Amino acid sequence: MSTSMDMPEEDESGQSSKAENVESMRNQLKAEVETIDEFENNCMKEALLASRKSKPKLVSAQAVLSSRLEPEIIQKELFVSASEKPEDWEPNSMLNWSETNTGAKEKDRENENTKHTAGKGGLFSGEMSRKNTWLAGQRERLRGKRRERLEGRAENIEEEDDNTANEKEMNPGIRLRHTQRQWSSKEAQDEESEKDVTGLRGAAQGNIDGDAEMRGTIPHRIFSKVLANSFASSSSSSSSSFNYSSAESDEVFSEGEEMAKRKDVRRCRSWRTFLTMMQWSKRRQSSWIQLAGHQGNFQLGESGEVLKRFNEVEDTCLQALMSDPLHQFVPRYHGHISRNGENYIRLEDLLSGLKQPVIMDCKMGIRTYQEEEIVKARTKASIRRDMYQKMVKVDPTAPTEEEHARRGVTKLHYMQWRDSTSSTATLGFRIEGIMTENGIVQRDFSQTQSKAQVTEALLLFTKRQVDILEAYLSRLDVLKETLKESAFFRSHEVIGSSLLFVHDRPTNKANIWMIDFGKTTPVPSNVHLKHDIPWVEGNREDGYLLGLASLISLLHVAIREIRGQGLKTHHSLTEHIVSEFNQHQPGINEATTDFLKETTVTNNMD
Ligand SMILES: Nc1ncnc2c1ncn2[C@@H]1O[C@H](COP(=O)(O)OP(=O)(O)OP(=O)(O)O)[C@@H](O)[C@H]1O
Ligand SMILES: O=P(O)(O)O[C@@H]1[C@H](O)[C@H](O)[C@@H](OP(=O)(O)O)[C@H](OP(=O)(O)O)[C@H]1O
């Protein structure tokens, strides 16, 4: 894994070589990390088990089981053995912790960077404080042990390495650390450790492009690059989902960058950096981020796989899709597995092998409820308090008087309201969540409705990078063609399914995947779905192609916007979108165009 690293030469005193020392330190650390892994996995397992009883949708802004959070966890617990669990450690707390609202979480991180005190403010202050106090104690003790173990060796290695490193390549943050690397006082060492934690977080969260300020930290430039680009060999051995499943995989970035990054790898020799990288890289290969959907529905699988809670409807669809032309857009299906008495579907992990995945989940279709839910609402509707609460939080006037009185709504009413207040009913898709490369997850798109708002979100997601937008466009074009050939698509009402957009600059990949077939059902053989006409109860149309057309046209709008041809006025943008739509959907029927015109006119474009 580290063969390309420059390790120190053997010294003259005949002592064992520094390379061996580093090797031995690495092994020690590896062993420790494995112990921690086991501990974390157990905690996570218990947490997931506990969360199974109820499985609310993910509502907070942070990813579940996010590998981007792992470096932080590793740093917090790096030197803690499984047997040293605090008494008040609860498995569930780990899950909660990783689901903390991003804003609060970032604040907590900043606070942690400066001091580890109990009783801080913030959403999870009590929990964080307990953990912090405990972790600070553990860290302190283990630092002592580590110091004993490494003293005398580390300093030499580090000094030599730092001296040989080209200082011009260092940013001020690294130089600061360089001058501060004195092991003489406890304070100096503590400060140093904190800086490393900070650097790791920044780097691990893809903090290459100046997002550091958000965390009140200076990104470690070389370190960040190394993290982003080293271990290419190890990660390439795990299958890249893009290459594996898709012949159309889009390589959107230039080769030149790769060369520059390799140079950086050679330059980076700090043993500390090296060891930390090892931890981080180990975790990064099993990256998993759940952007949307129900909490507790997923588990980590074998390398390159995720496990999704078994659902017969979805399972049947996935099996059928494996032999359909659409298979290239669907994660590979590997059958079932049972864990702790629960059945799971084994799916290809679409993030496997990626280094800084940027993800967007778009729920497709002009409605997200099945026709049978209407029937159910008429006959035996259950009243949902949770949905009432979600509803009034956004719009206290949305429930009817009767619903206010009973403080509950039917699921159908809630779903219809969600569809009408987002872009689902008008554009035929809605954004469920976006994770940018710095690891920040945004799920607050429930009111993102107009084309202008959605275009803004697309620009945010792609960071206004035309090559990425174009890669997505070409992928959507292939999808559109493939859908025409798909027997599966012709014969299924596709409700609540998502397109997962994923790009990853370090590996030059961008791709789009069809996921979530839990509410995709076959229609009787005498029903011929078009997928591009408005829905009326009974026709079972889902408007999937309307959503696809909207997405395509809005990607075009986004590209024009970047190229300075953005159309500013309400009217012109409306016209533009309709004309884009016609241009890109020549086969579309009049009803669809009318539908789009209607929805365009009713949208607020400002
Ligand atoms: N095969 C996969 N590889 C990587 N990530 C995935 C995969 N499948 C799902 N995800 C992640 O999990 C999230 C939720 O997936 P999915 O929509 O299938 O879950 P769900 O619980 O059925 O959702 P819903 O509640 O909308 O029905 C996605 O947004 C994506 O981030
Ligand atoms: O996105 P929101 O506003 O959180 O609302 C959820 C969303 O509409 C899901 O699609 C739906 O699950 P299904 O599609 O599986 O029905 C879930 O219903 P649920 O709470 O009954 O699971 C809703 O709570």
From TrEMBL:
Pfam families in alphabetical order: IPK
GO biological process: inositol phosphate biosynthetic process; phosphatidylinositol phosphate biosynthetic process
SUPFAM superfamilies registered for this protein in UniProt: SAICAR synthase-like
Composition-biased stretches (Polar residues): 14-26, 93-103
Cellular component annotations (GO), alphabetically ordered: cytoplasm; nucleus
Chain segments carrying region Disordered: 1-26, 83-213
Catalysed reaction, written as an equation: 1D-myo-inositol 1,4,5-trisphosphate + ATP = 1D-myo-inositol 1,3,4,5-tetrakisphosphate + ADP + H(+)
Keywords annotated in UniProt: ATP-binding, Kinase, Nucleotide-binding, Transferase
Record field: compositional bias (Basic and acidic residues): 104-115
EC assignment: 2.7.-.-
UniProt xrefs under InterPro entries: IPK, IPK_sf
Molecular function, one GO term: inositol hexakisphosphate kinase activity
PANTHER family assigned: INOSITOL POLYPHOSPHATE KINASE (PTHR12400), KINASE (PTHR12400:SF77)
Recorded family membership: Belongs to the inositol phosphokinase (IPK) family.
Name of the featured protein: Kinase
Annotated source species: Ictalurus punctatus
Gene: si:ch73-22a13.3
